[in-house]
Amino acid sequence: MTRNLTCIVCPRGCEMTVLLDENKKFLSAEGNACPRGLSYAESECTAPVRSLASTVLTESGKLLPVKSASPIPKGKLFDAMREIRVALAPDTLCVGDVVLADLAGTGVALVATANAADL
Amino acid sequence: MKSTVDLLIIGGGPAGMSAAVAAYDAGVRDILILERDAHLGGILQQCIHGGFGLHRFGEELTGPEYAGRYAAMVKEREIPYLCNTMVMHLDENRRVTAMNEEYGLFTIDARAVILAMGCRERPKGALGIAGTRPAGIFTAGTAQKYVNMKGYMPGREVVILGSGDIGLIMARRMTLEGATVKAVCELLPYSGGLARNIEQCLNDFDIPLYLSHTVTEIHGKERVTGVTVAAVDENRRPKSETARFIPCDTLLLSCGLIPENELTKEAGVPLDRVTGGAIVDQNRETAVAGIFSCGNVLHVHDLVDYVSEEAALAGNSAARYLRGESEKKIAVGLKTDGRVRYTVPTHVTEAKDVTVYFRVSDVFRDARVEVRLGDEVLLSRKKLKLAPGEMETVTLKKEWLDKADGKELSFAIVTA
Ligand SMILES: Cc1cc2nc3c(=O)[nH]c(=O)nc-3n(C[C@H](O)[C@H](O)[C@H](O)COP(=O)(O)OP(=O)(O)OC[C@H]3O[C@@H](n4cnc5c(N)ncnc54)[C@H](O)[C@@H]3O)c2cc1C
Ligand code: SF4
């Protein structure tokens, strides 16, 4: 069985053809211009993940841009957004500081991508 | 306020900051950046998503992180900048008129000027859609600013016209914030956005992309109540039998960017008809001596990494100009065949290896990019796919340029 994928790891966006066995297990892929495409294809066919970026309200009422410190399971995006929507960030946070330690039970932290003081 | 400066930079976005840092590192000390916004960073401040910096920093950063790194470099070097300061006028002698609350209206004479004003979105008026003009029509970038910087949702049920990257990014962003994006309509038979954005912004959320479709009418009195969409024929004319109504309260327009060159025109700098930006040589110097241009005000870039790279080149060139080093040695014009829409630079004045950026007019598969001098083919590079949305580069070799002095090099796309 084959599956067509677009690699989303870098802006080049390679179009890949992935070979899967009868249990939809990843076997091999082609069309990727670099090795990162391979690991993307494998993860996409096993347990797809996505990076998440959003904003969190600060105590002084500004919007602090934030992101997941690493990609989280695709199915958890909306759960994560529900937590992000009610979070409140101290005005002392700097780039890279943790806003939420465990985003929607994924074990991945939500971190600031700007200094709250500079907003 | 002082009345003279060696290097004045208009715009404190990624282009302006990178140009300032490069010029400083090349020895220029008397620099001033003027920025109309309250912070340095330009449009990146509202681009909270990731995807920036892979090329420049070797890691994936969000817009604010990328801008923050450059702002830190500017501050480390103590390069002077004024925010909340709008440049009102520029003339051919590099006299800059600007305004802010503290100094009122003031003028500065600069020995060199770098234009880094960025671009703006094509406004909706220019699109000429029939129907009413109720509330609920935004450019995708305006919606991005509302959602990401003001915390305000422009609407709940959204149709997006145009499949540029900003529209795709906003389709995902508004979906994550609870809106329903009902359709993205693209007039052309292909999307101008990156393939990765179609995948992760539309397909991930089952948002349909209708190629060769447009919005033919906007409905609603006070607020948008829906739009009529229709397929278009090969001449981009709507086929009325395909028209259908989609109820929505918001229409986002993502129909391309235009370089913001009002000041450039005032200074008498000739513009390129295709890019809407200045005509420049390999140093990013315009036809007016001492005025340089870089970033999105020169031509629309898809990736900020290339904006920084080009701006650093402009900053270095301005430093050389200020040291009196930039004498012209050769004259080579770069000509395009129409399939290659434009090149930056448009001409070359020094015999050295020169990287040329270009865009194509259509999608070409199994094609070759050729550079010719008369009948002689200097370069022929195979490309599996070329698309208008993606900027391409080739490097011209010093010896080709030596040979082409006084003549033109032509750029062409050859298909079987
Ligand atoms: C809405 C929008 C979203 C975008 N999203 C992405 C994206 O997701 N990824 C990506 O790679 N690229 C994106 N781009 C392209 C992006 O513009 C470039 O990547 C990059 O930000 C361009 O840098 P710049 O410095 O040339 O322009 P800008 O970032 O636009 O900076 C120009 C600066 O000049 C200032 N300025 C303009 N005129 C004056 C004046 N008269 N006086 C004083 N200051 C002035 C402006 O305030 C601004 O700060 C986007 C562009 C837009 C318009
Ligand atoms: S395979 Fe490599 S080059 Fe191709 S899109 Fe993925 S990361 Fe980029």
Write the layout of secondary structure elements.
The complex is a heterodimer of chains A (119) and B (416).
Chain A: E1 2-6, E2 15-20, E3 26-30, H1 35-46, E4 49-50, E5 53-58, E6 63-68, E7 72-73, H2 77-86, E8 88-89, E9 98-100, E10 110-112
Parallel strand pairs in A: 5-8
Antiparallel strand pairs in A: 1-2, 2-3, 4-7, 5-6, 6-10, 9-10
Chain B: E1 4-10, H1 14-25, E2 31-34, E3 50-52, H2 54-57, E4 61-62, H3 63-76, E5 81-82, E6 86-90, E7 95-100, E8 104-115, E9 119-121, E10 130-131, E11 137-139, H4 140-150, E12 157-161, H5 165-176, E13 180-186, H6 195-202, E14 209-211, E15 213-219, E16 226-231, E17 244-247, E18 250-253, E19 257-259, H7 262-266, E20 291-293, H8 304-322, E21 332-336, E22 340-344, E23 347-348, E24 354-360, E25 364-373, E26 376-386, E27 392-396, H9 398-403, E28 408-415
Helix pairs in contact in B: 1-3, 1-8, 4-5, 5-6
Bound molecules: flavin-adenine dinucleotide and iron/sulfur cluster.
Overview in brief:
The complex is a heterodimer of chains A (119) and B (416). Chain A contains two helices and ten strands.
The most extensive interface between chains reads: A-B, 28 and 28 residues
Our count of domains of chain B comes out at 3
Strand content of chain B: 25-35%
Which molecules are bound besides the chains? flavin-adenine dinucleotide, iron/sulfur cluster
User: Can you count the helices of chain A?
Assistant: 2
Overall CATH class of the largest domain in chain A: Alpha Beta
N-end to C-end Cα span of chain B: 62 Å
CATH fold-level label of the largest domain in chain A:
CPE0013-like fold
CATH architecture of the largest domain in chain A: Roll
The radius of gyration over CA of chain A amounts to: 18 Å
Task: Look at the structure and give the CATH class of the largest domain in chain B.
Answer: Alpha Beta
